[in-house]
Fold this sequence. Notes:
The protein is of the alpha/beta class and about 250 residues long. About 30% of the residues lie in helices and about 15% in strands.
Amino acid sequence: MTYQPYHIIGAERPSRWLVTVDHAANTVPDAVNGGDLGIAPADMQRHIAYDVGAAGIGARLGELLDAPVILSNFSRLVIDPNRGEDDPTLLMKLYDGTIILANRHADAAEVERRLTAYHRPYHAALEELAARREDTVILAVHSFTPRLQGREPRPWHLGVLHAGEDAFSQAVLARFRREADLCIGDNEPYAGHLPGDSIDRHALAQGRANTLIEVRNDLIREAEGQRGWAERLAPLLVDALAASSV
């Protein structure tokens, strides 16, 4: 089977939603150091290599929202699709205490090769999907680790990331906060705008409605949790879209 740097599920689904999962996979293509980044198998199962559980929750959200879903098929350690091409963290050499041996001596030519093979095809496919409708709403799905090395535990079940006071993300935040049992982060555990990232490139620069949700990954490590959280979130997202002005 020919390697493809992304997967698309439900390309012809008709709703205005587009679900994106930038960090869906921990795949290392054979063309990258023989498929081995030189780190322990246990590290390849950590958040440093991909967003644990995000692919499953994203795929189920696509079904429930009748929306196409695009998922990356390369580890963020190969090259990070949620970074601009000039971002210094595009190719990580040290991440949360782990040295990425296969990246330590990667030069500009190797970065360009990985951009051409993986990063750019993913973004070209994402943009093609987004451009099919004038009223596309991009729903970016990510997950976060409950604790980064040496830092305080993260209490949030979910985070909603956004750039400024955009109407749709504010509506999502408001709807999520009506769920009394959930701890919701507003631009937590990260700031919501990174110049050149996927939302900046495909939503903000194009004037498309968008939001990015982060789910704490201990809640969605298993398929049951992924399905359960998608089934809980889908109607809340539909409510938020109806309540917003987008």
